[in-house]
Model the fold of this input.
Amino acid sequence: MRIIPNSKNLNETDKKKFLEYLEEKMQRIKPFMEAHYPDPDTVKAACRIQRHERHNAYEITFDITAPRGGKFNTKVVKHNINEAMDLAVDKLEDQVREHFKILTRS
Done:
């Protein structure tokens, strides 16, 4: 799985924190993807973070595309980077588990 991070309106400290936490949190989803799609370039995960100046909030969006109808999307807005990432990855993990449960039922 290839992770493509993108950031907007982040200072260097927040950007570094985001990238480190992104790598840590994606370890929860990688085993599912690698079990079904061993080629690392088959699944692309785009993760975008944007800091909203006016509300002092962070918006995190995940778009993961995989073969066999695997499209996973989530968007979370919170005042803390870690809290936003935790909620977004939890939602993604639920979507991924459900998708592979459906694929392996036959």
